[in-house]
Write the structure tokens for this entry.
Amino acid sequence: MLIEDRGVASRATFVVDKEGVIRHVEQGNSAIDPNGAFEACNMLRKKS
């Protein structure tokens, strides 16, 4: 995500399901640690 007033981008991780729907978003410092995305992927896998 772009922080326009500072001229920098913030890290973001998106988890997208098989239909192309974004199911989980991690932004900022939490996006550095992949555990949130791994957990979201595991939840999607269990629903399939």
Remarks:
- The mean pLDDT is 86.
- The helical segments are 35-47.
- Residues 35-47 form the longest helix (13 residues).
